[in-house]
């Protein structure tokens, strides 16, 4: 079961993991509304950016919506993501569609507990870690969870779907 001691309030995503008997911890961090980037989250957590994953929602031509969970220092490779999702091409959904589609807002989108299940793809580096961080469904709160449990719970697929961000 989830470990929350007397910590942060449980999110719907946390309740779903509890119900499934999956172990995780809830890790709060200070939110900066002007900087919702994953590198800020990693810095606040005091963690390696490579193990702090962000959740992106894409729409594939012919395949419909799907989810990509990638390291915070990477960007989704639209061609590779489309290929693994069985789409001709794919694009990130417009920000205004995120909340109605998933129930989550930017900076608080979790791969767990979206309004409906979507095919979910995790970048292959997720298997390099014993524990990874993903949003717990609200800004300011992350799950620390085993990648194997996260992938199994979401029915996810591991693939090379991202490339490193180029510093400008």
Question: Keywords for this structure?
Answer:
single chain; alpha+beta; 3-stranded antiparallel β-sheet; 5 helices; 10 strands; disordered N terminus
Provide a descriptive summary of the structure in words.
The protein has five helices and ten strands; from the N terminus they run αβαβββαβαβββαββ. By secondary structure, it is α+β, with helices and mostly antiparallel strands. The chain has a five-stranded mixed beta sheet. Strand 7 (132-138) and strand 8 (141-145) form a beta hairpin. The model is unreliable at 1-5 (pLDDT under 50).
- N-C termini distance: 43 Å
In the predicted model, the low-confidence regions spanning at least 5 consecutive residues are 1-5
Helix count equals 5
Structural class: alpha+beta
Strand content: 25-35%
- Estimate percent helicity: 10-25%
Mean pLDDT: 94
Gross morphology is globular
Strand order of the largest sheet: 5-2-3-6-9
Radius of gyration, Cα only, in angstroms? 15 Å
Instruction: Kindly state the number of beta strands.
Output: 10
Give the helices and strands as they follow along the chain.
HEHEEEHEHEEEHEE
Biggest pleated-sheet summary? 5 strands, mixed
How is the topology of this model organized?
Blueprint (H helix, E strand, L loop, with lengths): L11 H9 L3 E5 L9 H8 L7 E8 L3 E8 L2 E3 L1 H8 L4 E3 L2 H8 L17 E4 L8 E7 L2 E5 L1 H8 L2 E3 L2 E3 L4
Parallel strand pairs: 3-6, 6-9
Antiparallel strand pairs: 1-8, 2-3, 2-5, 4-10, 7-8
């Amino acid at each position: 079961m989830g470990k929350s001691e007397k910590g942060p309030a449980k999110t719907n995503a946390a309740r779903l993991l509890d119900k499934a008997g999956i172990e995780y911890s809830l890790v709060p961090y200070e939110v900066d509304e002007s900087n919702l980037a994953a590198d800020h989250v990693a810095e606040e957590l005091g963690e390696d950016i490579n193990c702090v994953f962000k959740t992106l929602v894409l729409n594939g031509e012919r395949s419909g919506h799907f989810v990509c969970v990638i390291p915070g220092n990477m960007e989704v490779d639209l061609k590779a993501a489309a290929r693994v999702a069985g789409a001709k091409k794919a694009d990130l959904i417009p920000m205004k569609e995120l909340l109605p589609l998933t129930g989550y807002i930017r900076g608080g989108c979790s791969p767990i507990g979206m309004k409906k299940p979507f095919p979910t793809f995790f970048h292959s580096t997720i298997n390099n870690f014993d524990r990874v961080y993903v949003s717990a469904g609200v800004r300011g709160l992350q799950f620390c969870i085993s990648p194997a449990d996260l992938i199994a719970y979401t029915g996810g697929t591991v693939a090379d779907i991202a490339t490193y961000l180029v510093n400008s």
